[in-house]
Amino acid sequence: MSRVAIFVSGCSMNQALGEIIKSLYRDMLVDSIQEADVIILNLCAVKKPTEDRGISLARKLIRSQKKVIITGCLAESDPIRISKLVRGAHLISLQHLLELPPEEFICRIKEAEKPIISTGLRLNICYPSKRILRNPLVGIVPIAFGCTNYCTYCLDKRIWGSTKSIPPHMLIDEVRNLLRKGVREIRITAHDVAAYGIDIGTNLVELLENILKFEDEFMIRIGMASPNTFSQIADDLLSLMKDEERIYKFIHIPVQSGSDRILRLMNRPYTIEEYVELFMKIRKFLGSESTIATDVIVAFPTESEDDHKATIRLLEELKPDITNLSRYGDRPGCMSSKIKPKIHSAVAKRRSIELFQVIRRISMEQNKKFIGRTLRVLFLERRGAFLGRAFNNRIVYVQDIVDLGNFYSAKITRATWKSLYGRVE
Asked: 7: which of 29, 282, 285, 419 is 20 to 30 A away, CA to CA?
């Protein structure tokens, strides 16, 4: 029998899809890439460094005489270009992997005289799904694919198209299935969770209200939302989150730049003033101890020193608890690749360092507020120490022995800019 290994990179959605594929190939699955005859690489292409690592891995495997299948965002981003960069790799849409019998598909791959390029097939997930969970206590639930925005730097629209929501009854079935398996944290994910239902006459708040009808003890983590779509449901969603203990007090709304000029070039559909108003509304509803995450792209084409400083000022004003920093890189087929002038690499590096220092200082200040506090923590995994998440999705580590999947009271004794550390009381 063929031996298949599956490697996944990228976002939580990629991880969930990887879990579903692993279940389909369960009878052939091996843990190690080295043991496998055929390797399925579900790879991310959103950022160039991530793409480069995926391509490097695929080339290395082909040199070692492995049969390599590239799927996911990387396969769909630009199949002709990727096939030239990774000669010998098969490029296959995820939907093909989901609908073709595994034995038949692997046999076809092994017998193929030349690489198979079969991409462009739109993904159609049906729930409830069978999965091999990466963490048996965590269930990642993609609720929609695609986006309503047309950001000039992003591949998601090109790959996934406009928002396509999964029907609510399927999602409820999936959550029920995961809870029955013992999952204690449900992670709601999409390319833009706040756009959920826009195409089928419902919304995220209605979905969450239905999920919360389950009486099980679990937590819900809401994924990334675009500020413009989040604003449309903000009052109802924040009211629900404020009163519901089973939803983490955590919001992820990317700003990307502190400059209105750069936002216009990015084609982001909001202004800095609108973003600040939304940010402050979240703080008011959820409290000063809530966690607000954002994203920033540094060195976008034409970014001036004034634009860069505007981003620093915005972060220092709002003090987001988490800021994910990315250095801009051209992506094939994206409009921003045509915007000039580009920022010199030395300038981009210097600005990245300056922003990182600000981000690290702010996150450290925000985390230090919890030292001496006792927090209710759901412990989900072990990474040397035991790792859990507090009511606001802050990561908490303890050295005490705990039963994973249970809540404990933990007194916070130390903080870094990324995590909290404490002891169980």
From this structure: 419
3-state secondary structure of 263: helix
Instruction: Calculate the dihedral angle through the C-alpha atoms of 263, 264, 266, 268, rounding to the nearest 10 degrees.
Output: 70
> How do beta strands 164-165 and 144-145 pair?
antiparallel
Asked if residue 187 lies in contact with residue 389, where contact means CB atoms within 8 angstroms, the answer is no
> 């799904």: which residue's tokens?
129
Find out whether 218 and 180 touch, Cβ atoms under 8 Å.
Answer: no
Distances (CA, A) of 198 to 122, 195, 332, 422: 19, 6, 28, 42
Spatial separation of the C-alpha atoms in residues 299 and 309, rounded to whole Å: 12
Report the run of H or E that residue 408 belongs to, with start and end: strand 407-415
Per-residue pLDDT in tens (0 to 9) along the chain, 425 residues = 789 999 999 899 999 999 999 999 999 999 888 899 999 999 998 888 899 999 999 999 999 999 999 999 999 999 999 999 999 999 999 999 999 999 999 999 999 989 999 999 989 999 999 999 999 999 999 999 999 999 999 988 889 999 999 999 999 999 999 999 999 999 999 999 999 999 999 999 999 999 999 999 999 999 999 999 999 999 999 999 999 999 999 999 999 999 999 999 999 999 999 999 999 999 999 999 999 999 999 999 999 999 999 999 999 999 999 999 999 999 988 999 999 999 999 999 999 999 999 999 999 999 999 999 999 999 999 999 999 999 999 999 999 999 999 999 999 999 999 999 999 99
- CA 204, CA 192: separation in Å to the nearest integer? 11
Locus of tokens 């959920």: 196
Instruction: Look at the block and give the residue holding tokens 């000022």.
Output: 313
Contacts of range 401-409, beta carbons closer than 8 Å, 24 or more positions apart? 403/379, 404/137, 404/379, 404/380, 405/137, 405/182, 405/184, 405/378, 405/379, 405/380, 406/378, 406/379, 407/217, 407/376, 407/377, 407/378, 407/379, 408/376, 408/377, 408/379, 409/374, 409/375, 409/376, 409/377
Domains plus CATH for the chain? 4-118 (3.40.50.12160), 138-366 (3.80.30.20), 374-424 (2.40.50.140)
* Cβ-proximal residues to 375 (8 Å cutoff; 6+ apart), any chain: 390, 391, 394, 396, 409, 410, 412, 420, 422
Contact partners, residue 151, CB within 8 Å, separation at least 6: 157, 266, 267, 268
pTM of the model: 0.95
